[in-house]
Amino acid sequence: MSETTMVQYPAPEPPAFLFDLDGTLVDSVYQHVIAWRTALAAMGIDLAVWRIHRRIGMSGGLFVSALMRETGLELSAEEVEEIQRRHAEEYLRQHDSVRPLPGAPELLRALTERGVKWAIATSGRAETARTALGILGLPEDTPMVTRDQVRHAKPDPDLFLAAAAHLGVDPRGAMVVGDSVWDLLAARRAGALGVGVLSGGYGRDELERTGAYRVYRDTGDMLDRLDELGIRRPGPAASR
């Protein structure tokens, strides 16, 4: 009986990971919801919390535009800017209550140890988003793209395209990890594979309908199942 010989071919690079921030790595979705509600109330706009939650993940400008469309309100550019400013101030007041989501620091550390490239891409502006680096125990030079750095935020693909460019990878070989339909729609438009997490309040069915290849409870659950995403554990088992 002849022996089977291994075919020689270039080893593939592991996929890069492009992470959303709020609701994916840090438990901050509801702080953002309350901050938006407070900012709107200060301008005399009363909006139900659930309606605000459905728009978290968009940029502030798109959020307010959607609000105007749904409520029939007319706001000037100055009023829109004022609402966004008040939101940022209120969110920063709640900063001390924001925590890492289960497994997030450990997942990022595991990817780094295995030589997997990753970056954060968020619809938040740098003023609020970069405060999460300390919460996650990450250095200031962590690869992060914020709303301030691109022309359009989610559901446009710009944030993920910019994050992939920052890492020097093709977005078509990357995986986007996010908690909202806006993340997964942007991932699809960027040509990346979408991975959903339930830690931001969206349901499994919604995430799968928007294109999630896999849906995990949170980043801790994802860490335990990295082999499903092509990231093998180091050691002898990695070859199987």
From TrEMBL:
Pfam families named among the record's database cross-references: Hydrolase
UniProt keyword annotation of Signal present: no
InterPro entries recorded: HAD-like_sf (IPR036412), HAD-like_SPP (IPR051806), HAD-SF_hydro_IA (IPR006439), HAD_sf (IPR023214), PGP-like_dom2 (IPR023198)
Highest taxon of source: Bacteria
Keywords: Hydrolase
Any GO molecular function: sugar-phosphatase activity
The name this protein goes by in its record: HAD superfamily hydrolase (TIGR01509 family)
